Amino acid sequence: MQITNDQFALIKDQFKTLKERSPFYAMKFEGIDLADVQSQEDFEKLPFSEKDDLRRVYPLGLQAVPDEDVVRIHSSSGTTGTPVIIPYTQQDVTDWAIQFARCYEMAGITNRDRIQITPGYGLWTAGIGFQLGAERLGAMAIPMGPGNTEKQLRMMQDLKSTVLCATSSYALLLAEAIAEQGIGDKICLRKGVIGSERWGDKMRKRIADELGVELYDIYGLTEVYGPGIGISCDEHNGMHIWDDYVYCEIVDPKTGKNVPDGESGELVITTLRKQGAPLIRYRTHDLTRILPGDCACGSHHPRIDILIGRTDDMVKVKGVNMFPAQIEEVIRFTDGASSEYQVMIDHLFGKDILTVFFETEATGEDKKRVEEELAFIFKGKIGCTPVAKGVAIGELPRSEKKTQRIFDNRY
User: Fold this and answer.
1) 137 forms bridges with which residues in the sheet?
2) What CATH number does residue 166 fall under?
3) Are residues 338 and 283 in the same domain?
């Protein structure tokens, strides 16, 4: 994506004092005179920032302002290693709220809505980000946090919530609980804002149909404010990114070279206004592409496609590389397969065994036909033949947070 004049002006303004303010970037850009960065070509020669770099300066090595300017910290979960601590100034918090309020507005949500927030609070950026945006918009925030499904449904009915904010996994769990209890006619939801994990078309359709809502994908990551730096619009063709706050590149994950708009690769983000912990050329490991051309919704903000997955999501089985998005595509094309699936990878008797469990309403011979069809489509689209096993609807686990779908038991 071409850097605009406005974006480049913000980047160069940051660069004037970045190495003085940030010990992290003084070390990262040692030997580089940032005043020499005068073109996009110059910018693309700068080294990337990686999550491992951020972990190495734990806890507050990213901080680029004095302590008295820091009003809050957030943190990544740390489930895959040392957590990353991100300090925020008051301006950072305000900027995040502005972006999140824009997300709600893009989804057609107004200050007359009642927004039920189910993602977690605490060091994680999710719940408080959804709340920040709601308050900035002037809407009624209902800060439930995760879990306690019965209380969620009670509040949803009593307070007549019109917007649900959730992970796709928890939105599905709520949708199934509403259907099971037969209280759909008492639910006033009209919109769903869903984030934090990728999800397939069948899951999207199930949630939308069972809740009776229009769904929007929201994007963000803890290191870059949190959720709210982009969202899908009514066209549902990619996610608009707030390019006056972040600059996006797509690079080849192997070579690190920029790819043309429209080609898939790894998303790299540069913050344009962040004070507490600015990030330059940060590798997100999220796989997507820039969608070229203007969106029919009329917004001038550029779009990235819905995420394919992550570079670290890829698994190799029987010599074939596969991503969750490809498995979800197989599920989508298999008649009789519902949205939920689970993949088990084992190594037995000297060879890899790939088993795909999927939910289906089919039984007996019909279930066997669906299993055979899924295995056939899987072979055609991905390149290896799995053991396909249909199970009853609701048999696979549901989660209040993110649902783990691929279990690699070989190591």
Assistant:
1) none
2) 3.40.50.12780
3) no
> Rounded to 5 degrees, what are φ and ψ at 345?
-120, 120
- In this structure, the answer to whether residues 106 and 239 fall within a common structural domain is yes
CB 247 within 8 A of CB 5: no
Instruction: Give the pair of three-digit tokens for residue 148.
Output: 């306690």
Q: How far apart are CA 371 and CA 362, in angstroms?
A: 10
Helix-helix angle 201-211:168-181, to 10 degrees:
40
Among 251, 284, 311, residue at a domain's last position: 311
Amino acid found at 22: S
What's at 262, amino acid-wise? Answer: G
C-alpha distances (whole Å) from 44 to each of 270, 280, 371 are 11, 11, 48
Q: Tell me, yes or no, whether 282 and 221 share the same domain.
A: yes
Token pair belonging to 186: 């008492």
> Which value, to the nearest 10 degrees, does the dihedral of the CA atoms of residues 193, 406, 326, 124 take?
30
Structure tokens at 261: 């708009």
> Among the residues of 212-254, which ranges form H helices?
none
d(CA 411, CA 305): 33
Domain end among 311, 338, 371: 311
Per-residue pLDDT tens for 52-108? 999 999 999 999 999 999 999 999 876 667 899 999 999 999 999 999 999 999 999
Same domain as 103, residue 246: yes
Q: Where are the beta strands (DSSP E) in 170-281?
A: 191-194, 214-221, 226-232, 239-241, 246-251, 265-271
Phi and psi angles of residue 173, each rounded to the nearest 5 degrees, phi first: -60, -45
Question: Count of domains in the chain?
Answer: 2
The 3-state DSSP class for residue 286 equals strand
Percent of the chain with pLDDT over 70: 97
3-state SS assignment for residue 60: coil
Largest distance between two CA atoms of the chain: 70
For residues 106 and 145, membership in a common domain is answered with: yes
Provide the domain limits for residue 319: 314-408
- Return mean pLDDT, the chain: 93
Determine which helix (DSSP H) or strand (DSSP E) holds 344, and give its type and residue range. strand 337-348
Residues 230 and 241 sit within 8 Å (Cβ to Cβ): yes
Could you report the per-residue pLDDT of 130-149, keeping only the tens digit for each?
A: 999 999 999 999 999 988 99
Residue 298 within any structural domain of the chain = yes
* Helical axes 90-106 vs 126-137, angle rounded to 10°: 70
Work out whether strand 387-391 and strand 351-360 pair parallel, antiparallel, or are unpaired: parallel
